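Annotated sample (chain length 168).
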Amino acid sequence: MINDRVPGTRVIRTALPAEAEIIADLHLRARSTYYPDGVPQAGFDWGEAWRESIARPDGQVLCAVEQGRIVGIASFRVPEGAPADTVKLFQFHVDPEHWRAGIGTALHAACTEQWRADGRRTAVLDVHADNRRAQAFYARQGWRPDPAHPPAADDHHLFLRFDVPARE
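Output written by the structure step:
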């Protein structure tokens, strides 16, 4: 896209299959910040997993691009067995070098707009219990603990719910 090369311009768009490795690298950098003992599944082929997510006909991967560089990613789809008006945010990451620059907020707004356009009324996610930064971000965006999935004592994740606002 021409806008990807205009300095200072932020573009949020659908990710391309050729970008899977770049997205996997960003994913690893972001996840490394909240796993004090090292990222689980270190040998997992995240590039292939992202290629599959990008190619899924029932899901979507959005990326935030600034000055031609991917700086944020979001992956979502209707989870298996869920009502058709529910979407799950499976992955949401901003490159740590770009934290606190509004990228996450803009990416979340784009997700919300897409969910609204797709007729989704509820979004759900799970966030790592040690990832306080993400929990605070989600709370600022309007996410709340999911009453249908209270955390068990040994859970490593918290389950959150978001009511997708109706069009104004």
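Annotation: Residues 1-6 have pLDDT under 50 and may be disordered.
Annotation: Residues 103-117 form the longest helix (15 residues).
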